[in-house]
Amino acid sequence: MHKVSSFEEVLATHEKMIYYLINKWNIRDPEKEFYQEATIALWKAYESYDPARGKFSTYAYFCMEKALLSVIRKQTRQQEKQNMFITMEKSNPNRAVTFLQEGIDPYLLARLENVLTEKQMTWFQLYVLKDLSVKAIAQKEQVTTAAVKNWARAAKPKIRRVLCSES
């Protein structure tokens, strides 16, 4: 199939497959965004197809389905972030605006609040976000510098895990 047919012929032959996948996943596609993603995936399949590895239609189906699911996942993640921001905005409007002005992702901050203790979150906000020294934090919180260092020591692996799960 590779290079024997033009892509226009391949698209005409496999267009029903695109619509089948869109219907299979119950996708509403008024702007044809999903159709376009599937067409691009079909083009990539057409360009990278190796006849020795099986039927083209099976390979094309796999590539298009994977592309559509990626778009769905991306939109779901964006919706989750929007919902998290809306929830944060309703609970404390000034805080969300402040984080956005400072360039801090409110979704990430909410995830950190879920894993850090209150003291660890205090260290994170004052040391990382507000750039205060350990000594200044200790004075502000009326604790020893060793206590602040312990908060940091316990918080860092948790923050690393959250950041690694983001990427």
UniProtKB/TrEMBL annotation:
<comment type="function">
    <text>Might take part in the signal recognition particle (SRP) pathway. This is inferred from the conservation of its genetic proximity to ftsY/ffh. May be a regulatory protein.</text>
</comment>
<dbReference type="Pfam" id="PF04297">
    <property type="entry name" value="UPF0122"/>
</dbReference>
<protein>
    <submittedName>
        <fullName>Sigma-70 family RNA polymerase sigma factor</fullName>
    </submittedName>
</protein>
<keyword id="KW-0238">DNA-binding</keyword>
<dbReference type="InterPro" id="IPR036388">
    <property type="entry name" value="WH-like_DNA-bd_sf"/>
</dbReference>
<comment type="similarity">
    <text>Belongs to the sigma-70 factor family. ECF subfamily.</text>
</comment>
<comment type="similarity">
    <text>Belongs to the UPF0122 family.</text>
</comment>
<feature type="domain" description="RNA polymerase sigma-70 region 2">
    <location>
        <begin position="32"/>
        <end position="77"/>
    </location>
</feature>
<dbReference type="InterPro" id="IPR014284">
    <property type="entry name" value="RNA_pol_sigma-70_dom"/>
</dbReference>
<dbReference type="InterPro" id="IPR039425">
    <property type="entry name" value="RNA_pol_sigma-70-like"/>
</dbReference>
<dbReference type="InterPro" id="IPR007394">
    <property type="entry name" value="UPF0122"/>
</dbReference>
<keyword id="KW-0805">Transcription regulation</keyword>
<dbReference type="Pfam" id="PF04542">
    <property type="entry name" value="Sigma70_r2"/>
</dbReference>
<dbReference type="InterPro" id="IPR007627">
    <property type="entry name" value="RNA_pol_sigma70_r2"/>
</dbReference>
<keyword id="KW-0731">Sigma factor</keyword>
<dbReference type="InterPro" id="IPR013324">
    <property type="entry name" value="RNA_pol_sigma_r3/r4-like"/>
</dbReference>
<keyword id="KW-0804">Transcription</keyword>
<dbReference type="InterPro" id="IPR013325">
    <property type="entry name" value="RNA_pol_sigma_r2"/>
</dbReference>
